[in-house]
Amino acid sequence: MAKRRTNYEPEPHESAGGYLGRSGAVHKDTSASIFESMYRSPAYRGLTARQRDLFMCCKLQRYGKRKPGRDYREIEELQSEALFYLSWAMVSKDYGLYPEGSKKNFYSDMKALAEHGLIELVSSGSSRRTKSIYRYSTRWKDWTQPG
Questions:
Q1: Of 4, 10, 119, 137, which one has the greatest count of Cβ atoms within 10 A?
Q2: CA–CA separation, 44 and 107 (whole Å)
């Protein structure tokens, strides 16, 4: 019986070995991938290029990032691995996906990801000025293009 790998080591063409965060610290790389069934789905294909990039930012939050369950240990509903944080600061400053002054586009694109069934908003942090909490969704499997 073959041994199973527990830690995937990226190929040289896949990774630089880590990345420099806003604080100047070097962080371990994480990966974001999608399966072909999602890639070929009408829900994913119906997104714009920028919305697909934003979804990959969401996917990057899956592993190796701070999760809501760690911050809210007393709330059982927030312990799922399918939950993640995503904020304007992360996508604009960390990932450079949106230039200053385009916050409206970010929220519009997040709404599109939810409408396409890829994510769900669990808790909006806007009124408390905290990070919003999202959940990966399976609704994309049944999504059909409106109209």
A1: 119
A2: 18
Contact between 70 and 84 under an 8 Å Cβ cutoff? The reply is no
Query: How many C-alpha atoms does 20 have within 13 Å on its Cβ side?
Result: 1
Over 70: is that where the pLDDT of 91 sits? yes
* Beta carbons of 103 and 113 less than 8 angstroms apart: no
Distance CA 19, CA 25 (A): 8
Give me the phi and psi of 84, to 5 degrees please: -155, 160
- DSSP secondary structure string, 50-62? HHHHHHHHHHHTS
Return d(Cα 132, Cα 126) in angstroms, integer.
7
Q: Where are the domains of the chain?
A: 20-142
Taking the model in full, what pTM does it have?
Answer: 0.84
